[in-house]
Specification:
The complex is a heterodimer of chains A (about 300) and B (about 290). Chain A is mostly helical and about 300 residues long. Chain A has helices at about 1-5, 10-40, 55-60, 80-110, 115-125, 130-140, 145-160, 170-195, 200-210, 215-240, 245-250, 260-265, 270-295, and strands at about 40-45, 50. Chain A has 13 helices and 2 strands. In chain A, helix 12 runs antiparallel to helix 13. Chain B has 2 domains: about 10-70, no CATH class; about 75-260, MetI-like (MetI-like fold, Orthogonal Bundle), CATH 1.10.3720. A 3-stranded mixed beta sheet of chain B has the order 1-3-2, with no helix packed on it. Classes of the chains: A mainly alpha (about 300), B mainly alpha (about 290).
Chain lengths: ~300, ~290
């Protein structure tokens, strides 16, 4: 037995991987399978599950009322709207995050070598407060008597202008700001990593060949930093799609995203079958976007850089 | 135009984005000294030291002076409990993930076996699926399993299996292991195996070679993987939200609960302490690393 273990390399490898594989199968793959099975089930009155095969949960998600047929009055867009809102909000967040992260990453990548680590460090510090605490900070800033209205009111007073406090909290924009804030650092790091790798000689070559700054950016810098943007997009888009705290705290009851929908099915509404179906739809949506995005632009090693 | 010259646009954007990143942090810290209990507007700091005196919702005098809310925090049993849970969960799940993740990285990088492609692929699952999907999956697994086991084994009362600190630790291991494995694997890829061959040539057996050569060279990778697992665990809200039970509340869960009720500057004091603790931990770690290098 011991002799065999010493000689059989395949057995050694299998034994080494076994604990991790057990965790991956037991706590990821089996739960996903279970979610799939339950999504075809029916709920009981006390929040339990009857294992059957019905597509009702999925039909409700895309707006078709089960058992009503395909008439127009049977179409209820409530859940389809939530899916659409989540997708557009995630896309808007990702686009805004790229626009904000790129110049900063560019600045850090072109800074003197000694200072780069300090600048990167400064990007990471805000991440050390907790995710939930950061949402709370934006609640303090955005509320009607909050910090931002305080600053605006003070400015208006200084200029002698009339000022009515703005209603900012519990709006879709508040949720967007919160999401952008939460995930910005996850875009800065990979874009920085890919920008830092660019050989400065390439810029000189572009300049020697007569390219101006804009052309150099479009034809040299941007294409070479694409792997960073792709990695950053994956690190931002996927969590934004599934987050429910930001919309819960900053959106009040006004902005309901798919994450909120799923959470409520498991806690308040107690319909795990519908929640499971929603969660699988969420997973499929993110996988489709990720697949087409990475197939078009490639999957960089930058993703491990974070 | 020389592209090495900084454009004013980039400079301006950099200042604005740093401002955006730090505004909430400054607000959090400032309001932890707020005299107003309702904490909606900043009403100045508690300036007098002495027995607690309130004027409406305003703290006029406190034994701790400006640090009133920090003292209140220290007396809050729920916070201390949550802090203890958070640390227990983070330390336990980090140690286990670092251990089994390093084993997995060695297996994937050094050995050939039948389940290798499948194992490698499974590590990418937590990166490409949203956390909430993982959270409700694990919740479903545990609740179905516990319902089954409780009735099969006839467990009643306190003996019943339920969500708690154990289920939280298991779920944290599940999202940490892939990160540790991938980081250590990346370290192993740029690894010169001739050192190990030299050790064997000099008469060291496999165990000694591993202990004296392989492990010391791997250690930086293992440490950075473990650090990542530790921060992921400290910061996690979503998965803990679905897998915690009574008595296993962590700090993020506790704060979330407060946000839906009444918030006093205690939450800000907690954030300030949190930032300072992590800042000093990272600072110490960097000093330690630079001394080793």
């Amino acid at each position: 037995m011991f002799q065999r273990l010493r000689e059989d390399k395949a057995l050694q490898g299998t034994l080494l991987i076994l604990p991790t594989l057990a965790v991956m199968v037991g706590l990821l793959i089996i739960p996903l399978g279970l979610t799939l099975i339950i999504s075809f089930g029916q709920r009981t009155a006390d929040g339990g599950v009857i294992y059957t095969f019905t597509l009702d949960n999925y039909l409700r998600l895309v707006g078709i009322t089960p058992g009503c047929g395909f008439k127009s009055e049977c179409f209820d867009p409530l859940y389809a709207n939530i899916l659409w809102r989540s997708l557009t909000l995630a896309l808007q967040t990702t686009a805004l995050v790229i626009l904000l992260a790129y110049p900063l990453s560019y600045f850090i990548a072109r800074a003197p070598l000694k200072r780069r680590n300090t600048f990167l460090f400064m990007v990471l510090v805000p991440l050390w407060t907790n995710f939930v605490i950061r949402v709370y900070a934006w609640m303090m800033i955005l509320r009607t008597q909050g910090v931002l209205n305080g600053i605006l009111g003070w400015l208006a007073n200084l200029l002698g202008l009339p000022f009515v406090p703005l209603e900012m909290l519990y709006t879709p924009s508040a949720v967007l700001v919160g999401m952008v804030y939460e995930f910005l650092p996850f875009m800065i790091l990979p874009i920085y990593t890919s920008l830092e790798k660019i050989d400065p000689a390439l810029y000189e070559a572009a300049a020697d060949l007569g390219a101006n700054a804009a052309r150099t950016f479009l034809r040299v810098t941007l294409p070479l930093s694409m792997p960073g943007i792709v990695a950053g997009t994956i690190l931002v888009f996927i969590p934004v799609m599934g987050t429910f705290i930001v919309s819960d705290i900053l959106g009040g009851r006004q902005v309901i995203l798919i994450g909120n929908l799923i959470q409520r099915q498991f806690l308040d509404a107690r319909d795990p079958t519908f929640g499971s179906a929603a969660s699988l739809i969420l997973m499929v949506m993110t996988l489709i976007v990720t697949y087409f995005y990475t197939r078009k632009f490639g999957f960089g090693e930058e993703i491990v850089a974070v | 135009m020389n592209p090495n010259r900084r454009s004013p646009f980039v400079n301006l954007m950099t200042i604005l984005v740093y401002g955006f990143l730090y505004l909430p942090i400054i607000v959090l810290i400032t309001f932890s000294f707020n005299a107003s209990k309702t904490n909606i507007t900043f009403q100045g700091v508690v300036s007098q030291v002495g027995p607690l005196k309130m004027q409406g919702s305003l703290v006029v005098q406190s034994p701790c002076g400006p640090f009133h809310w920090f003292c209140e925090l220290g007396k809050n049993k729920d916070v201390l409990n949550a802090a203890r849970n958070t640390l227990t969960i983070a330390v336990t799940s980090t140690i286990i993930s670092a251990l089994i993740g390093t084993m997995a990285a060695l297996a994937l990088q050094r050995y050939n076996f039948r389940l290798k492609p499948f194992s490698q692929l499974s590590l990418y699952i937590p990166i490409v699926i949203p956390e909430i999907v993982m959270g409700i999956g694990i919740l479903t697994l545990f609740s179905q399993l516990f319902t089954f086991l409780n009735s099969a084994l006839g467990l009643t009362g306190d003996a019943r299996l339920a969500l708690g600190i154990g289920t939280v630790i298991l779920s944290h291991i599940a999202f940490s292991v892939p990160f540790v494995t991938l980081v250590v694997q990346a370290r192993l890829q740029g690894f010169d195996q001739s050192f190990e061959e030299a050790a064997m040539d000099l008469g060291a057996n496999e165990l000694v070679t591993f202990w004296r050569v392989t492990l010391p060279m791997l250690l930086p990778g293992v440490l950075s993987g473990a650090l990542m697992a530790f921060t992921l665990s400290l910061d996690d809200f979503v998965i803990t939200f679905f897998t915690n039970g009574p008595g296993s509340t962590t700090l993020p869960i506790y704060v979330y609960g407060l946000l839906r009720r009444i918030i006093t500057p205690q939450v800000n004091a907690l954030s300030t302490v949190w930032i300072l603790l992590i800042f000093s931990a990272v600072f110490l770690l960097q000093r330690l690393q630079s001394r080793q290098a």
